[in-house]
Design goal:
The complex is a heterodimer of chains A (343) and B (505).
Chain A (H helix, E strand, L loop, with lengths): L1 H34 L3 E6 L10 H12 L2 E6 L2 H8 L7 E6 H9 L3 E2 L20 E13 L10 H6 L6 E4 L5 H14 L3 H8 L3 E5 L2 H9 L5 E5 L2 H9 L4 E4 L5 E11 L5 H12 L1 H11 L2 E2 L9 H4 L7 E2 L3 H20 L1
Chain B lengths: L1 H28 L7 H34 L5 H8 L1 H4 L2 H12 L4 H8 L10 H26 L2 H9 L4 H29 L3 H7 L7 H12 L2 H25 L21 H29 L8 H28 L2 H12 L2 H12 L9 H39 L3 H12 L1 H17 L15 H10 L3 H27 L5
Helix pairs in contact in B: 1-12, 1-14, 1-15, 1-16, 2-7, 2-9, 2-13, 5-13, 7-9, 7-10, 7-17, 9-12, 9-17, 11-12, 12-15, 13-21, 14-17, 14-19, 14-20, 15-17, 17-18, 17-19, 19-21, 20-21
Classes of the chains: A alpha/beta (343), B mainly alpha (505).
Chain lengths: 343, 505
């Protein structure tokens, strides 16, 4: 008896269920139509995805003929992927810097990119099979020639400059450009790095957490020179028609900064990820990235750079530590900076 | 009984959201890290600057709050609302505003140059303290002001009819009030200054101004040393809780008993000397707090036109998050408005946002997609971060209402919802409005934990400011910051005004 009593309401439920199923089936067809478009998930730094960053243009160009949906996921790129491990949904990453490649490589989460590197036009040799460069620049102190008529002509001259020259720099412990800066000083002065920082200390107005704060202070007129990139003047030339911002070029050389992409080993879209890697060194991407990310394309001859980039003054001597050298020197370089500036 | 269960639930949720993420980070790290000499130096600097910052903020707030409590002048309400603004500005915006006033090329330096004086140097420990006072003086002022306004006006009338001298009024009414409110205000400001990072670094002028939070940032972002990050977080928590305990100890003294619960004009402070003192306090505070805000507005106006659709969308997301956080925070704060609740809640702002974010990420990752959770997580974390402030505002008055109306309510048999509706909430209207305004505004401006939970399609306004700055769009970023300031202040004003609608002030 009890069983029968139970069945009646169940039957009513069944009917209801059937209706739901039909509805669900409708949904399924809709989603499977969408699912036929494969999704390529790419982790990127936060500034990439804003309407002013390179993300939207990359997405537009790549989606034009990949038959896929490229989705950028912004945020703390490497910390997140290390926390996620092999369960990460990322198929590729873009926007890594050389200061984290050692750690990234050791995690085993990244696979060889398989791209022919002969097209690269970097000022240094690059044979990395895992991390693929897409644009570069160099550390440099940027100034406004209307405010600073006689900038120092060498790093030595900068150290000897009068103490009322006001510099803003970034903290090497919280910023990528800050770290490149201490490695730059380390590369020029070696064991004398601490003494160099000591000389620079009275001129360092302040140290900021990241590049943005420093650059904001510089454009506000608070500082005479800002630790930035050789490519920064190109932004002002092209976007603002302002030719007064210059990077001071020093004969001692400038530290090389490169941004990298990589394929994630656990990707469920290996073909698409490979295709994305090829696309990065292709002409379309390379012609766009200069004004998209305000950096020098990694695989494009100088005569094909946009006008404002061609007129940039670039260093003849380029300094660079590979990831093993940098890892070995990093602590020492940061400590020299800390000690030199703490006095 | 039901009230107890609700309070317990609120406390458990608080514990889960602070201890949980920390435990998750510890578990992942497999133990605590070790500290070197630079970290200990950072800890010393952190505690020292937080002590100075909180001390100055509270001490300077006393004359300002007293002046605002006993003066009536045109624009007083607007001034009080505006004074809340520094507290809710995103750090980067406020720092640029401060430097535009006190920097080498700032208003003050340029004015001095015209007079043939030297440029002032803001960078150093004094700069850090100046900035923290800029952020927190308004909070301390409002907390004290709230206390003064809660003294039944009959007490001042009685003092006047007894012919008490100004000094006797200070001794019998003002000083007990300061003793009751100031320690708690000190503790909450001390705690928030403990986790300072970008402000301390930028205005501190270099590595001497390294804080614990910077060491945590370095550990998480650059060295992936979660063990050390967890250890540093625990130390931060311990220092904050110690400060909270000391504050609880010190904040003795009963309230002023119940009055007739109505507004009566004040009789004290009518002498010429008192008027001058009050005038100076109000003018100095207004100049100090409003000039940098003026610079934020001036820098932002040209950028308003450059912002683009993304910024307006981000503003919409921020508004939704702020309103959600506010509702959650108030519902959370009411049952926790006790001494113990307030002490617990300090943990919420003492915990490094970066560790909190990393821990939440580790906990949520196996179950949900962190990208789709960006806005809800931001909302919850903002509510959590605002909780100590809401409690600091609500607790003294909630306790006073409980005490003062306990007998009446018991006689009438008012309990549960009826008590809440008829007794507690109406009496708490002013602090509730203030707490809601502050939470909403804080939630608009706070970047919180979004770094690991960033959603590509749904940025919040503070995030948008950072994204714009990261792409050389300094003008547009200044415009977006102005929009953020206007929206935060707008929300703050609406809620705060709502709370004061019948206060006659």
């Amino acid at each position: 008896m009890q069983t029968w009593l139970l069945i009646l309401p169940l039957a009513a439920d069944m009917e209801c269920e059937m209706r739901n199923l039909t509805f669900a089936a409708g949904l399924l067809t809709a989603t499977s139509a969408m699912a036929q478009t494969p999704v390529l998930t790419v982790y990127a730094p936060d500034y990439f995805v804003s309407e002013w960053g390179p993300g939207p243009k990359i997405e537009e160009l790549f989606e034009a003929d990949c038959g896929c949906d490229l989705q950028f996921k912004p945020g703390d790129l490497l910390p997140r992927i290390l926390l996620e491990g092999e369960r990460t949904e990322a198929d590729a990453v873009i926007g890594l810097n050389t200061d984290v490649t050692k750690r990234a490589r050791e995690s085993g989460l990244f696979a060889p990119h398989g791209v022919d590197l002969s097209a690269l036009t970097l000022p240094i040799a690059w044979e990395d099979e895992v991390f693929l460069p897409f644009n570069y620049g160099h550390t440099a102190f940027v100034y406004d020639e209307t405010r600073l008529e006689t900038p120092p002509e060498s790093f030595d001259a900068l150290l000897e400059a009068p103490d009322d020259l006001r510099l803003v720099i970034q903290d090497p412990r919280s910023s990528i450009s800050g770290l490149a800066m201490v490695l730059w000083v380390q590369a020029i002065y070696g064991d004398g790095a601490e003494a160099a920082w000591d000389k620079l200390a009275p001129k360092v107005l302040t140290v900021t957490k990241a590049w943005s704060e420093s650059y904001g202070l510089f454009t506000d007129g608070e500082a005479d020179m800002v630790m930035s990139y050789t490519t920064s003047p190109a932004y002002h030339i092209i976007a603002e028609g302002d030719e007064t911002k210059k990077a001071a070029i020093f004969p001692e050389g400038h530290y090389f900064m490169v941004e990298l992409a990589a394929k994630v080993a656990s990707t469920d879209q290996p073909e698409l990820a490979d295709r994305f890697m090829d696309f990065i060194l292709g002409e379309e991407f390379q012609s766009m990235i200069a004004t998209g990310n305000w950096s020098i394309p990694a695989a494009l001859p100088r005569d094909q750079w946009p006008e404002g980039f061609q007129q940039l003054e670039l260093p003849e001597k380029v300094l660079f530590y590979d990831e093993d050298e940098a890892a070995a020197l990093r602590e020492e370089a940061i400590e020299a900076w800390r000690q030199g500036l703490s006095r | 009984m039901a009230a107890r269960a609700v309070a317990l639930g609120a406390a458990l949720l608080l514990a889960a959201l602070t201890a949980g993420p920390l435990a998750a980070v510890l578990l992942r790290a497999g133990g605590l890290g070790t500290l070197g000499a630079p970290e200990w130096a950072a800890l010393r600097f952190t505690v020292w600057q937080a002590l100075l910052s909180a001390g100055f903020s509270v001490a300077l707030a006393v004359p300002v709050a007293r002046a605002l409590a006993r003066r009536r002048f045109a624009g007083r309400g607007a001034l009080i609302a505006l004074l809340g603004a520094p507290f809710i500005l995103p750090v980067i915006v406020a720092v640029l505003g401060l430097i535009a006033v006190f920097g080498q090329n700032g208003v003050v330096s340029r004015a001095l140059a015209v007079l043939g004086g030297p440029r002032i140097d803001i960078y150093g420990l004094h700069g850090v303290v100046l900035a923290h006072v800029f952020f927190n003086l308004p909070l301390a002022t409002r907390l004290l002001l709230q206390g003064w306004l809660a003294i039944p006006a009959e007490r001042y009338r009685l003092a006047a009819s007894l012919g008490l001298s100004p000094w006797a009024v200070i001794r019998t009414l003002d000083w007990p009030l300061v003793r009751r409110i100031a320690p708690g205000a000190f503790a909450v400001i001390f705690t928030i200054c403990l986790t300072s990072f970008a402000v301390a670094l930028t205005l501190g002028g270099g590595p001497r101004a390294t804080t614990v939070e910077l060491a945590i940032y370095q550990s998480v972002r650059f060295e992936f040393d979660l063990g050390r990050a967890a250890l540093l977080s625990l130390i931060q928590l311990a220092v904050a809780l110690a400060a909270g305990l000391v504050a609880l100890r010190l904040s003795g003294g009963q309230g002023f008993g119940t009055g007739l619960d109505r507004v009566v004009p004040r009789w004290d402070g009518r002498s010429f000397g008192a008027r001058v003192v009050d005038g100076v306090a109000i003018t100095a505070a207004a100049l100090f707090l409003l000039t940098p805000l003026g610079m934020v507005v001036a820098r932002g106006l040209p950028g308003l036109a450059l912002m683009g659709a993304g910024t307006w969308e981000a503003a919409g997301h921020s508004l939704v998050v702020a309103l959600g956080s506010t509702a959650l925070c108030l519902a959370w704060a009411l049952p926790l408005a006790t001494k113990r609740g307030e002490l617990f809640a300090l943990a919420a702002i003492a915990l490094s946002p970066l560790v909190l974010g990393t821990g939440l990420f580790l906990i949520l990752r196996p179950f949900v997609n962190p990208f789709s959770m960006a806005l809800p997580v931001t909302g919850v974390v903002n509510a959590l971060m605002a909780l100590p402030f809401a409690l600091r505002i609500l607790r003294p008055e909630a306790e006073a209402v409980r005490r003062d109306y306990a007998r009446l309510s018991a006689t009438l048999g008012l309990t549960g919802l009826a008590w809440l509706q008829l007794v507690l909430l109406p009496r708490l209207r002013r602090p509730l409005g203030f707490a809601a305004g502050l939470t909403a505004a804080l939630s608009m401006g706070d970047l919180g934990v979004i770094a690991l939970f960033a959603d590509p399609d749904r940025a919040t306004l503070p995030l948008q400011v950072y994204r714009l700055m990261g792409s050389y769009q300094m003008e547009a970023a200044a415009g977006a910051a102005l929009l953020l300031l206007a929206l935060s202040l707008g929300l703050f004003w609406i809620f705060d005004r709502g709370g004061r609608a019948d206060a006659g002030a």
